[in-house]
């Protein structure tokens, strides 16, 4: 973070209060701004960074990013820097690994370039271009059923113990733009991944550092880092993404994990500030705070770059009505939901299709974008899977032997869809063509008269796939 252009030579040394990550003092200095950067030097000469969190007359409350452990009321030197919190960015940031405050931790040289405010600049709604153009993640449950398009924000709702970290790594490594599918993409266009891990354990951080490579920028905030740093990490990452997208014209995919940890950090700091709590103790401004992060995704008219977001959050007690997933769903354009039941059956990724949704999928798939059969095939698969779930419920009551022939076909279809279509290996990078072809083969479990959402022309075109013999793979290898 930049420390130049200090506007005031006065150094304050008397603190009134130290509480949690906050310190308070009296500063009779005109022009102190909300969110202004502050430098704190403790008795041992160690520098800590902070920002102005509250102004009440001449009383100033400061959030200290590195925590207040070891600070004393009369032994610190505090200076207001006259600018907001910034991160230094340039094209050379690609390939770097940084901490949650944007400082290098990969042993490389210090960052050089321009210093940008981590809060970003609000986008004029009229300047936004509508999200479009398909991004291939290599994950069938996303690409074929809940497609991601450039400029979209599509969160993943997971739970503790589910493999969302593995999926984040896989998407970071596999996500790509398909210029051969989209006429609006150029052959030279590549996808840059900005990966931000918030409050992760050391072993998880090591795994991210080892397995995520290539055209990526990684921000790693550890579980034992100060809580204030967790509030900065997504904003620092998005500032880097905005520079790459809107200044350099690159297409950027931002993966944020875990936004629930971010929300808990916000609750902790809000409690220390004395903010009035709302549901489950979270501050009443949780919605607007999350919106300042998620709404930084998108495309701008007249600029070639784009920012696409995949926020990942864990639902406490698998509760989708918890404030964080609940409010996230209002801000974003759909959600990918994980199923603990599928995970127990050893399916990866355990994507629960019925509650999953991509609201912008219809604008990013089809003729000239992916394939002409993409959207109708998705609708048919969803409809058939819903019927298969109904048959499963009925089977628990009447038993499988009393099912009709058609119902047994749906039961087989549900098993094949989960084992062959949704499930895939952690190294399996499926193209959208492969994913759609698997979908057609799975539909071969059903009589053709049941394919009511597919036109006769589509069925004739892809009839060979419907007639192929399915390797159902019902016998799994034992450990």
TrEMBL record:
Highest rank taxon of the organism: Bacteria
Domain ATPase F1/V1/A1 complex alpha/beta subunit nucleotide-binding: residue ranges: 138-358
Keywords: ATP synthesis, Hydrogen ion transport, Ion transport, Transport
rRNA processing in keyword set: no
Every ATPase F1/V1/A1 complex alpha/beta subunit N-terminal domain range: 18-76
Domain ATP synthase A/B type C-terminal span(s) in chain numbering: 364-460
Listed GO MF terms: ATP binding; proton-transporting ATP synthase activity, rotational mechanism
Keyword presence, Transport: yes
Biological process (GO), any one: proton motive force-driven plasma membrane ATP synthesis
A family per Pfam: ATP-synt_ab
Family note: Belongs to the ATPase alpha/beta chains family. T3SS ATPase subfamily.
Function statement: Produces ATP from ADP in the presence of a proton gradient across the membrane. The V-type beta chain is a regulatory subunit.
The name this protein goes by in its record: V-type ATP synthase beta chain
Gene: atpB
């Amino acid at each position: 973070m930049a420390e130049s252009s200090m506007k005031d030579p006065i150094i304050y040394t008397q603190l009134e209060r130290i509480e949690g990550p906050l310190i308070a003092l009296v500063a009779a200095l005109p022009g102190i701004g909300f969110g202004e950067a502050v430098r704190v030097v403790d008795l041992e000469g160690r520098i800590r960074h902070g920002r102005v969190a509250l102004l009440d007359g001449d009383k100033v409350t400061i959030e200290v990013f590195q925590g207040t452990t070891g600070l004393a009321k009369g032994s610190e030197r505090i200076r207001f820097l006259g600018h907001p919190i910034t991160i230094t960015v340039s094209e050379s940031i690609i390939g770097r690994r940084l901490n949650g405050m944007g400082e290098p931790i990969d042993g490389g040289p210090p960052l050089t370039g321009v210093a940008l405010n981590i809060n970003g600049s609000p986008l004029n709604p009229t300047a936004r271009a509508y999200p479009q153009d398909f991004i291939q993640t290599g994950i069938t449950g996303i690409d074929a059923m809940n497609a991601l398009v450039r400029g979209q924000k599509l969160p993943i709702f997971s739970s503790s113990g589910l493999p969302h970290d593995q999926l984040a790594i896989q998407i970071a490594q596999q996500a790509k733009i398909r210029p051969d599918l989209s006429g609006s993409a150029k052959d030279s266009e590549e996808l840059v991944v900005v990966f931000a891990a918030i409050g992760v354990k050391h072993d998880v951080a090591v795994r991210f550092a080892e397995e995520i490579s290539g055209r990526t920028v990684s921000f790693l905030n550890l579980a034992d880092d100060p809580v204030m740093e967790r509030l900065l990490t997504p904003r620092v990452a998005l500032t880097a993404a905005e520079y790459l997208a809107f200044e350099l014209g690159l297409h950027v995919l931002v993966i944020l994990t875990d936004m629930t940890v971010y929300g808990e950090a916000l609750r902790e700091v809000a409690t220390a500030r004395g903010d009035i709590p709302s549901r489950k103790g979270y501050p009443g401004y949780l919605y607007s705070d999350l919106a300042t992060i998620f709404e930084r995704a998108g495309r701008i008219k007249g600029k070639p770059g784009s920012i696409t977001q995949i926020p990942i959050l864990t639902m406490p007690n698998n509760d989708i009505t918890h404030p964080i997933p609940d409010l996230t769903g209002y801000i974003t354009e759909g959600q990918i939901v994980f199923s603990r039941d599928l995970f127990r059956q050893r399916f990866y990724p355990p994507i629960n299709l019925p509650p999953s949704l991509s609201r912008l999928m219809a604008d990013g798939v089809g003729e000239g974008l992916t394939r002409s059969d993409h959207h109708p095939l998705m609708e048919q698969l969803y409809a058939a899977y819903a019927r298969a779930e109904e048959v499963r419920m009925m089977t628990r009551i009447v038993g499988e032997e009393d099912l009709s022939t058609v119902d047994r076909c749906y039961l087989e279809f549900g098993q094949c869809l989960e084992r062959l279509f949704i499930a895939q290996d952690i190294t399996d990078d499926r193209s959208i063509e492969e994913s759609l072809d698997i979908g057609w083969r799975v539909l071969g479990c059903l009589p053709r008269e049941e394919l009511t959402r597919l036109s006769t022309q589509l069925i004739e075109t892809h009839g060979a796939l419907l007639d192929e013999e399915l390797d159902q793979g019902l016998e799994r290898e034992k450990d």
